[in-house]
Amino acid sequence: MKGFSSRNLKYMRKFAESWRDRQLVQRTVALIPWRSDLALLDKLKNLKQRLWYAQKTIENGWSRDVLSFQIETQLHKRLGMATNNFELALPPADSDMASQIFKDPYVFDFLGTAEPRREAELEQRLIEHLEKFLLELGQGFAFVGRQVHMEVGDDDFYIDLLFYHLKLRCYVVVELKAGKFQAGHVSQLNLMI
Hints:
Number of strands: 3
Strand order of the largest sheet: 1-2-3
Distance between the termini: 63 Å
Structural class: alpha+beta
Shape: elongated
Largest sheet: 3 strands, antiparallel
């Protein structure tokens, strides 16, 4: 064979040294694009993390850029860490799946460096960047609406952002708060159950 650059040959050697298990390569690593393989090799030293991100790339169809962003923001540490009420509100199987889907913290770097000061401004900026926001939420989220009206008894409430999750087969309410988390925020969400 001819035509390989020295850089490409070095990557091929690094690939062979990093992925010694042939079956693992065939089941996972061979299923993602070469450029994504290179991102895994360049950005991760730990074999378990490299394999985890390779599997997530297959599951979610991530491009190289999305994979790189997820590695840089340490998705493996954020996934399944969100504060929630899933154990109280959902059956055990659904509760476990929902817990695994949500991250904490979410990374909204695409909104710019200046921190939004009001919830309405945060909501507006997220809507302007809806595609990137959906990528940060994860696979399976469909946007339903913003400031969705809801009546509970004789009171009117407005859901900041409403999504539907295709795998969970349920609505996901996002209530935006620009300040520090307070226990009363959970009460507001529990009212909608």
